[in-house]
Amino acid sequence: MKLITILTRAMLSLVRSGVISHFALIILLVLPANAYAQGSTHAATLPIIDMHFHPDPAWDLTAFVSLFDEVGVTKAGNGARERGPDTDKVALDFALQNPDRIFVFGFGGIRGLINKEGEPAWTLESEAVRKALVSLEADLRAGKLKGIGELHPNTTLSQPKRGGYFPADSPLMQHICRLSSTYKVPLSAHMDATEQSVGEMERLLLSNRNCIWMWAHAGHFAQPPLLRRLLQTHPNLYLELSQRVGPSFYADRIDDDGELRRGWKELLEDFQDRVVIGTDRVKPSLNAYSRVIGLWRQVFSQLSPKAAAKIAHGNAERLLRLSPAN
Ligand SMILES: [Zn+2]
């Protein structure tokens, strides 16, 4: 076992026993100069924006915001977990309690309707879907939402029990892409990187160069050669890497205990303007949340300070149109 892994485990047990705080742990993990690449101190203190956090009343928001302060997360958000027509309201009500730290994406609740109605939902023959789109546009126009999603055009491999597949270039997705370009908001899309889905995504991105496609979990199992080709071809494609760092039920990791796997450092450096991070913890858990942020800080310590800052917060600020942090 590598020395750094032994040290990490020893320090995690100190956190569990309350001897040191999570943020102190992160500093300790990142500071030893010989163990990590240059830029480690910078990686330990970078502000982080979490682009895949599902607002949910089950989180203890007061404790959570304290944890944000402890681990250096400035903001987090996305849509609430699917609750039908109430999904956006759940997220907006939760965010209202702390609008400076939580931002909201909308329309994720459409997943239930698509599962129920099937093809008429994604061909826009469904009146209920058309109505929901009108309401989404009103919320975007009013500035209540910072993005659209999480939408699920293909979950056949990653979440086989929760829905399935509809074309990423269907009339529904074309309409949503138009909203993304009109209101300049990212569209968070959970879509397995199958050949068929990737082809549809490419057709959609070619048809609307201003649609901002934030590929949630970067396709779950897509690897650097495919992602490199897609990023080169489509300037409106962004990777969002939640579930790809740390333990995941269904995605291929890009790291081993925080250490980047082959090909990823080069990809993240070369496309440093096109990558954001997220946590996407399935169950509200402060411990699990801080563990993932700790792993992300280890990843940042392997990147150049410039790339790390963009991926940790700079690109998210640009996509959310926020004022830049330090
Ligand atoms: Zn997802």
Summarize the SSE layout with pairings.
Layout: H1 3-16, H2 22-30, H3 40-45, E1 48-50, H4 61-71, E2 73-78, H5 87-96, E3 102-107, H6 110-117, H7 119-122, H8 127-141, E4 147-154, H9 171-183, E5 186-191, H10 195-207, E6 212-216, H11 224-233, E7 237-240, E8 255-256, E9 259-260, H12 264-270, E10 275-276, H13 286-301, H14 305-320
Parallel strand pairs: 1-2, 2-3, 3-4, 4-5, 5-6, 6-7, 7-10
Antiparallel strand pairs: 8-9
Helix pairs in contact: 1-2, 2-13, 4-13
The protein binds zinc ion.
Zinc ion (ZN) is lined by residues 150, 190, 216-217.
Q: Could you characterize what this model shows?
A:
The structure is a single chain. With 326 residues, the protein is an alpha/beta fold. It has one domain: TIM Barrel. Helices cover 47% and strands 13% of the residues. It has 14 helices and 10 strands. The protein has an 8-stranded parallel beta sheet with strand order 1-2-3-4-5-6-7-10, with helices on both faces. It has a two-stranded antiparallel ribbon with strand order 8-9. The structure holds zinc ion. Residues 150, 190, 216-217 line the site of zinc ion.
